Structures are given as structure tokens and as C-alpha cells.
What does this fold into?
Amino acid sequence: VQLVESGGGLVQPGGSLRLSCAASGFTFSSYFMRWYRQAPGKERELVASISGTGGRTNYGDSAKGRFTISRDNANNVVYLQMNSLKAEDTAVYFCNALSIYSYWGQGTQVTVSS
It folds into this structure.
């Protein structure tokens, strides 16, 4: 099983990034997919989640109105489009697959700074 995040980096406040998480080794469409983030000295925080079919999405308060989660079940990828980024969005972003089992990626760093 592998979850590989990509797309992180340094962006200025107000900018956008799209994170990707490529999955392999399990039946992707059967898993709820979630994005978490963890900033230094803080607990891991749920950012967004999406059901196996993509028909249901949920967002943490910090992400509502700015972030969009989506998935491509044909290619086993989940995305997180992040717009209007703020300094407080700076964190390591993790991809999580949840069903009977829970799998985690290694994370990708997002830094929002001028």
C-alpha cells in the first residue's frame, strides 16, 4: 500500500496550490479519502474528506469556502485544491485512506509566506 502526496511548496498569501495523493495497493474507490494537516506544535487537523464515489464531501472550518477536495477513481488520485491561502495554512499536509484499514502518506510541506 502506498499513498504519495505531491504539489506542496512555497506560495505567497492569497495564492493557490493543488495537492495530489496517488494511491496504490488497495481498492481505492472503496475508501474514504481525507486530507489532514499538522502545523508545528499543533495537533493533526482534518481538512477535508470525500466518500468513495466522490458524492459526499466534508470540510473543516478552516477549509470551507477556500479548499476543494476531489478524486479520480480511474487513476487512483485524490486532490486538494487550495485557494486564497493564508499564513496559517502553513503545515505538512497528509493524505489518509480510511475503510476497514487506515493508511497514511508521508506528507507534503505547504508554506504560505511572503
User: Anything to note?
Assistant: DSSP finds no helices and eleven strands in the chain. The mean pLDDT is 97.
